[in-house]
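Troubleshooting entry. The earlier prediction with zinc ion gave an output that would not parse, so I re-checked the input for stray whitespace and re-submitted. Clean input:
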Amino acid sequence: MLGRLARWLRILGYDVAYESSISDDDLISRSLHERRVILTMDRELSQRESAKNCLLIKSDDYREQLKHVINHYNIDCKSFIFSRCFICNELLDYIEKEKIEGKVPPYVYSTHNEFDFCPQCHRVYWSGTHRGKILDKLDEILRVSLQ
Ligand SMILES: [Zn+2]
């Protein structure tokens, strides 16, 4: 239910663990151990005494969810954006251009000089039109009232 929210928060550079099947007790103990906040749609879980840092997400629209989380935690959307793999949650590393030849489309290779890669899944990232689209989408989400 919160998968898209998790991916968006990773795009913004935030460390997000995503669990779709974990018991409430395990989730709470992991959040305490790893000093994470819990984002959940489960009202009962959010009301538990032991779930101290918990935010109840009420909307099932990912855009509302994202806006809610950004506003609630006063999240900085620009400083860490595109620093993390949105699939694995790993921080991206800079990689020399020569090392990724053949791993990105030839046009991208010939028109870009800066590349990052994910040490976990080896996905290569670069600043291109897709990043512009993500920024436009983010502006749209933050500007528009979705109610
Ligand atoms: Zn990755």
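This one parsed fine. The two ends are 19 Å apart (CA to CA).
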